[in-house]
Amino acid sequence: MIKTGLGQDSHAFDADNSKPLFLGGIEFDHSQGLRGNSDADVILHSLTNAISSITGKNILGAKADELCQQGITNSAEYLKLALADLNEWNIDHIAIAIECLVPKISPKIAALKSNIASLMGTSIINIGITATTGEGLTAFGKGEGIQVFSIITVSKM
């Protein structure tokens, strides 16, 4: 049996320059972080949503807000909750599409794949990451924030 999950997330850059920018659990050298109650890691949020679309159990929203109020703002913790709901499903492939003008994603793709593979309990060869500016047609391509779509394919015998 095979299932495919689709997840999306987007955040605007925060005018308060004190917040670091985290993407895929990796800190990027950028002048602004993303606005959100948590670390606003749009890649990990997108992956969490993709898993939720498979399991039917939403993590982002009320559950993540509850954790934020407890001081748990690391998006890897939300991803772990979603992964626990997969139970006997095995991750076959993860596709991640990032739209932003800044920061440049390509120089960090290897580090992103490595960290995401570790967090998701899969091999780097099962992860594909693409990045685009979208020709500047959206707010993300104009540098106002970052949008991410993720597709996860899982299977079980």
Task: Explain what you see.
With 157 residues, the chain is of the alpha+beta class. It has a single domain, classed as 2-Layer Sandwich (60s Ribosomal Protein L30, Chain: A), CATH 3.30.1330. Helices cover 29% and strands 28% of the residues. It is built from 4 helices and 6 strands. The chain has helices spanning 42-55, 62-69, 75-85, 109-120, and strands spanning 2-12, 21-23, 26-28, 90-99, 127-132, 145-155. Strands 1-6-4-5 form a 4-stranded mixed β-sheet. A two-stranded antiparallel ribbon has the order 2-3. Strand 2 and strand 3 form a beta hairpin. Helix 1 (42-55) runs parallel beside helix 3 (75-85). It starts with a strand and ends with a strand.
The biggest beta sheet is recorded as: 4 strands, mixed
The ordered string of helix (H) and strand (E) elements is: EEEHHHEHEE
> What's the number of extended β-strand segments?
6
CATH H-level homologous superfamily name:
2-C-methyl-D-erythritol 2,4-cyclodiphosphate synthase
Helical proportion, percent range: 25-40%
Alpha-carbon Rg, integer: 15 Å
| The CATH architecture | 2-Layer Sandwich
Give the neighbour order of strands across the main sheet.
1-6-4-5
What is the residue-averaged pLDDT? 95
- List the uncertain runs: none
* Spatial separation of the terminal alpha carbons: 6 Å
* 3D shape: globular
User: What is the C-level CATH assignment?
Assistant: Alpha Beta
Determine the CATH topology. Answer: 60s Ribosomal Protein L30, Chain: A
Number of helical segments? Answer: 4
Number of domains: 1
Secondary structure class reads alpha+beta
Strand content: 25-35%
